Amino acid sequence: MKPELIVMLTHNDLTVKNAYEVFEQCKDTKALYWGFKEQPLPIEEMKRIYARMKACGKRTVLEVVAYTEAEGLEGAQMAVACGVDVLMGTCYSTSIHQYCQKHDLAYMPFVGNIVGRPSILQGSIESMVEEAKELKTKGVFGIDLLGYRYDDNAEQLIADVVSKTGTHVCVAGSIDSYDRLRFIKEVQPWAFTIGSAFFDGKFGSSIAEQINLVCDFIGK
User: What is the set of domains in the chain, with CATH numbers?
Assistant: First the structure.
């Protein structure tokens, strides 16, 4: 199974203001999974974009960059209101997990210690592997791993979490080169996100062209 590209309509961990228009320009590309962040668009605009994505047959993701239980639960409620398929982000809590289970929302919380926005990941590789294993026993769908935001050996972290935990891993953030894509292809997490790199033209010219180039590269 090849890793799934999740196209994030985000730049520097914030949803771009013209997300609807960008999706319209790219809806016929090869990417199945699409999403964005919980800030700064109003909820009605978020609902409009997700409804359009669903109408185009896409799988939808909301990534919530929140570190408290209250903020995480608010993000989960936002995800349910928008009808998305997958909630990524938040620091795990029982209340968020139970809410996701009640509403058939796949839950992929962060692992490790996360600070700031754009996020930086801290902690030992061993502790994050153990945390991911524990979350799997709790029944979450998978984990949101800010692999290339790690302040130590990012690729060792990604490789260990993917190979040792047996759970769905989404490598999120800062995949901005073909070298990093090549590594993702090699270790085969369930999915990976690209957002800012598309808007910065790291993989080509138009966003639509870049999406297809990345999909083709991963699928080779």
Answer: 4-219 (3.20.20.70)
